[in-house]
Design a protein that fits this description.
The structure is a single chain. With 243 residues, the protein is an alpha/beta fold. It folds into two domains: 105 residues, Rossmann fold, CATH 3.40.50.80; 84 residues, Roll (Ubiquitin-like (UB roll)). It is 25% helix and 22% strand. The strands form three sheets. A five-stranded parallel beta sheet has the order 3-2-1-4-5, with helices on both faces. A five-stranded mixed beta sheet has the order 7-6-12-8-10. Strands 9-11 form a two-stranded antiparallel sheet. The longest helix is centred in the middle third of the chain and has 14 residues. It is globular, with a radius of gyration of 21 Å.
Length: 243
């Protein structure tokens, strides 16, 4: 098993019945758009876990939605008894079809103004993003169970100025912005350290972030108004952060 950061060990070795813990509110980086005229939900394999709940919520609210469920085989698919055969549910099983799903054909045939959601294995998500970009679909949402293979920014040093704390921190080459903040005694919410959970999202007031996360959309990255400080850095010499 890959080495952990000690969370499970702490729970087993330290916590006892009656212990009091401080926890954060739930985070959701994959919310449904309440104003969507139509929602298209695509699940690959175990990605059906959140997608099935989202589909159920939309149906319960009487909103227009459809589900495309893909898996290697029917035997490996989850929730088949609840989903297959339901209205507006399409399935694809690789072993039965003999080919992977035709994502491009499926996406191209749906309303362009729909909101498209996808959760599944990394190759499927990468293909989904590429096809949506090629088709020019404006409302695209993804959920990753694991971070993409991105490294924390290792470029030259830069300065992070903290607007509320009135501090200026030099982030040296080879160190993440998060580690520089923590070393300076700045308490920043964080969890995964991989740019996938969204816990360390921080507002950017000035400067150009170098985005390396798997949370922000392309439009959010282009806007440069927020960043994940655990893996993202600076393309210039200075960032002004709302910390």
């Amino acid at each position: 098993a890959p080495p952990s950061r000690g969370g499970s060990r702490y729970v087993h070795d330290t916590l006892r019945v009656g212990a009091t813990l401080t926890i954060s509110a739930p985070r959701n980086n994959f919310p449904l758009e309440p104003g969507a005229a139509h929602s298209v939900l695509i699940a690959g394999g175990i990605g059906i876990t959140p997608i099935s709940c989202m589909f159920g919520q939309l149906r319960g609210q009487g909103k227009s939605a459809e589900l495309f469920y893909c898996a290697r085989s029917r035997a490996e698919a989850a929730f088949t008894a609840q989903l297959l055969g339901e209205q507006n549910v399409t399935s694809h099983f690789d072993d039965e079809a003999g080919t992977p799903p035709d994502l491009k054909g499926f996406l191209a045939s749906r309303p362009r103004d729909a909101h498209f959601y996808c959760c599944g294995p990394t190759p499927m998500l990468n293909a989904f993003e590429a096809i949506c970009e090629e088709l020019g679909l404006p409302h695209v949402h993804i959920e990753r169970f694991a971070a993409e293979k991105v490294e924390a920014v290792q470029g030259g040093s830069y300065v992070a100025e903290l607007a509320r704390s009135k501090q200026s921190i030099t982030v040296p080459a080879g160190k993440s912005l998060l580690d520089a903040l923590l070393d300076a005694g700045i308490n920043v919410d964080h969890s995964c350290r991989e740019g996938v959970c969204g816990a360390c999202e921080t507002k950017v007031i000035e400067g150009q972030p170098d985005h390396r996360d798997g949370v922000l959309s392309k439009s959010e990255r282009a806007a440069g108004k927020t960043m994940m400080v655990c893996v993202s850095g600076c393309k210039g010499q200075r960032l002004l952060l709302d910390i």
